[in-house]
Amino acid sequence: MTQDLRCEEVIDKLLEYLDRELDRDTEDALAQHMETCRACFSRAEFERRLRARVRDISEAKAPDSLRQRIHAIMERY
Amino acid sequence: MTGDKENEIWRHSARAFFQAEVEHLMDRLYGTALRLTGNRSDAEDLVADSLAKAWNGLSGLEDRQAFEKWVFRILVNGFVSDRRRQKARPCEVEADREGEFSLFEKLHQPFLLWWGTPEQELLDKLLRADIENALDALPEEFRLAVVMVELWGLSYAETAEMLDVPVGTVRSRLSRGRSLLQSALWHQAREAGLLKGEAKGTAR
């Protein structure tokens, strides 16, 4: 049995929900709320997509000079 | 088998393991270091120093499945201690919740639902460089929290433990960091004329 949440409570907990940092009952309550509330669902989708865009920049092509340095370190020790 | 022979076999297996893992992680480590240090030269030094420490300490890593987080921890520790050396005192930024900014709230227009979704359209228009600039502009402590949780998927508890701060501090730095990130994206989008109905660089 999950508790009923108001939109303000959902928005307040949304980032922790997306980070999987809430306890199971609260997480279930948010998920249930978003099954019937288009506004909160849209906001969650927006935050998810924004995160995916931010996560995309975690990689950058390492220069050859760095690879050579790592190779030299492994040879030295 | 002699000790020398055993040692030789261990080094051979360790080298193959380390090379494969590093090859897999290299672009991610360099990308992360770039976001943390803000320039290519320091990023390269940070990754090289971190991997040197990792290679030297590999025999102490009991669970090789944990290699990725272990190397990331070395990289974060290296960055934090470099910064501490460079500064007389660490930069402490108050993580108050005043001025919390939501890009969604700025853009979302529920009464225009059937005409499109400006907030989703903006996400499609943002360049990689827009996001890099917004993240790079964050104060260091907030940027570090965003990188650790958002880019590396660490839990709040893992982040707190790595940074040696309470979980509540991670939560507030993350919240403030994300708010500032979204605010920066909003301002960049406005300057670039990406917001519907607003003239380039002139909107309020």
Summarize the structure.
By secondary structure, chain A is an all-alpha fold.
What does this structure look like?
The complex is a heterodimer of chains A (77) and B (204). In chain A, 22% of the residues are buried. The longest helix of chain A is centred in the middle third of the chain and has 19 residues, at 38-56. Chain A is mostly helical. Chain A has helices at residues 7-18, 24-36, 38-56, 64-76. Chain A contains four helices and no strands. By secondary structure, chain B is mainly α. Helix content of chain B is 69%, strand content 0%. Chain B has helices at 3-37, 40-57, 67-86, 103-107, 118-125, 128-136, 140-151, 156-163, 167-191. In chain B, helix 8 crosses helix 9 (167-191). Chain B is elongated, with a radius of gyration of 21 Å. The chains are: A mainly alpha (77), B mainly alpha (204). The interface between A and B is large, with 33 and 48 residues.
What is the tally of beta strands of chain B? 0
Q: What's the SSE pattern of chain A?
A: HHHH
Please tell me how large the radius of gyration of chain B is.
21 Å
Residue share in helices of chain A? over 70%
Largest sheet of chain A: none
- The H/E string of chain B reads HHHHHHHHH
Please count the helical segments of chain A.
4
Strand content of chain A: under 5%
Anisotropy-based shape of chain A: elongated
Q: Quote the average pLDDT of chain A.
A: 91
Which parts of chain B are unreliable, with pLDDT below 50 for 5 consecutive residues or more? none
Query: Per DSSP, what share of the residues of chain B sits in E-state strands of 2 or more residues?
Result: under 5%
Total DSSP helices of chain B: 9
End-to-end C-alpha gap of chain B:
76 Å
Largest interface: A-B, 33 and 48 residues
**Number of DSSP E strands of chain A:** 0
What structural class should be given to the helix and strand makeup of chain A? mainly alpha
User: What is the makeup of the main sheet of chain B?
Assistant: none
Radius of gyration of chain A: 21 Å
